[in-house]
Amino acid sequence: MNHAPAPRHGSAARSSYRRWGASIGRLSPSAGSRRAGGSLVALALVLAGLPALAQPLTPAEVFAKVSPSLWKVIGLDADGLALGQGSAVVVAPQTLVTNCHVLAKAKRVLLRRNAAPDSPGVDARLSAWDVQRDLCQLTAAAVESPAVALGRTEALAIGQPAYAIGHPRGLDLTMSEGLVSSLRRNAAGQLLLVQTSAAISGGSSGGGLFDDQGALVGLTTIASVSATAQNLNFAIPAEWIRDLPRRHAALRAAASASSPASAPTGTR
């Protein structure tokens, strides 16, 4: 007797069950949890590779960090008499920067960190200059102070904290706190001055303007205080310090092409 093949109800049912089970598995909480857990682990690994956001320093921490690199600058005439004084910042080993107008007519340059007026000080020589930008570089073999970090003024934002440190009126290592008030540019958009509400005075010229990480963002240069103008203070941008060797070499080359090069003072 011939028998017709029996229908494969069992196989079909098992196949359908497997497909249904697979669908349920894809939607099951345990699978979703595993995927979420894997995503969190991956995210944690990515975040671990990112640099930590720098926390702002307090004013006291900024001062402690950078003040060892601030020096008083005294210009002397041929008789050893003081012509004026300003400030300078160490930006490389045995290398400081200041404003050229601080050195005007000086035949000798003396650096001091001791408040005593009779302290011997340290002799420095002029090693690079850019009078147009009022930026001069001094070299002093006896200076062992650490160099400050140079900041980037393109990262500055109006309203962020700013700290000026220098020697106003001969008062050693005076710190003032303020804000970045504005960024003054020329018609071509080039930054010329960083305006700040951090107070500066005569003797502050060549001192440092620092951000809340203790990075140098400018050299304090100009202050305007009168009956009609209050708390208008300006610093030349720190980028000019990086550019000084190139501009100095170009100025020397241009000067030597027409006449023997001469420094803005007699301190070479």
Task: Tell me about this structure.
- It is a single chain.
- This protein is α+β, with helices and mostly antiparallel strands.
- It has a domain at 153-240: Trypsin-like serine proteases (Thrombin, subunit H, Beta Barrel).
- Helices cover 25% and strands 31% of the residues.
- It contains 4 helices and 12 strands.
- The protein has helices at 9-27, 29-48, 59-66, 239-258, and strands at 70-76, 82-92, 95-98, 108-112, 122-130, 135-139, 161-166, 174-185, 191-196, 208-210, 216-224, 232-237.
- The strands form 2 sheets. A 6-stranded antiparallel β-barrel has the order 1-2-3-6-5-4. The chain has a 6-stranded antiparallel barrel with strand order 7-8-9-12-11-10.
- The longest helix has 20 residues, at 29-48.
- The chain starts with 8 loop residues before the first helix and ends in a 10-residue tail after the last helix.
- Residues 20-28 have low confidence and may be disordered.
CATH architecture of the domain at 153-240: Beta Barrel
Strand order of the largest sheet: 1-2-3-6-5-4
CATH superfamily of the domain at 153-240: Trypsin-like serine proteases
Describe the sheet with the most strands. Answer: 6 strands, antiparallel, barrel
For the secondary structure, the number of strands is: 12
* Helix coverage percent: 25-40%
Average pLDDT number: 84
Rg on CA atoms, Å: 32 Å
Any idea what the shape is?
globular
Write the H/E string, N to C.
HHHEEEEEEEEEEEEH
Number of helices: 4
**Spans of 5+ residues with little confidence (pLDDT < 50)?**
20-28
The termini sit apart by: 124 Å
Structural class: alpha+beta
Which CATH class of the domain at 153-240 applies here? Answer: Mainly Beta
Strand content: 25-35%
Question: What is the fold named in CATH at topology level of the domain at 153-240?
Answer: Thrombin, subunit H
